[in-house]
Input
Amino acid sequence: QSALTQPASVSGSPGQSITISCTGTNSDVGGYNYVSWYQQHPAKAPKLMIHDVTKRPSGVSNRFSGSKSGNTASLTISGLQTGDEADYYCSSYTSSTAWVFGGGTKLTVL
Amino acid sequence: EVQLLESGGGLVQPGGSLRLSCVASGFTFSSYAMSWVRQAPGKGLEWVSVISDSGGTTFYADSVKGRFVISRDNSKKTLYLQMNSLRVEDTAVYYCAKVDYDIYAMDVWGQGTTVTVSS
Output
């Protein structure tokens, strides 16, 4: 049950775009189109931002987008805003454990 | 409004037991699978367990298998996590989450309850 691999941190300036990667295996990211992304502000509960690799729940800004190639999924945030500063976690349904999360990426908006 | 409210956290000694509860409101509880996810201090999210809408099917992370038991009472709209043989490494904020199998994601989360395992 190894966690998915994410960069520990990324940063960008307001208005710029950033991309966070999430690498798994054929048993999770590569095997299912069930990758989701969560945003977590300090001391708050996670919030679902992307599901089914590319789809946004109602109410989530279209500045957030997702994609996948092979065993790596990505979250792109365009037009960075200070309120986007948070931790971001990817997650995938898996063949063995039901779900697995990435280690998390801290986004800093400079 | 869709809400999940966890309770039952606290300080417990290694080897002890604790039962967490999560009360749901604002949606048809009995129609959805439910999950527990935890977050150790300063660490990332870790999926713990999931239970089907009827309660008949459960899955656990290897780290808690044989020690934790997930259950639910649909008449009370309540999810439970019975934690036995607790270890220091079980110290974390425990979140309950609504699982939507139409999107294979956890779309509603509670605010979390803190479990501290320490002597």
Summary: Chain A is about 0% helix and 45% strand. The first strand of chain A starts at residue 9 and ends at 12. Chain A touches chain B through 27 residues (CB under 8 Å). The mean pLDDT of chain A is 96.
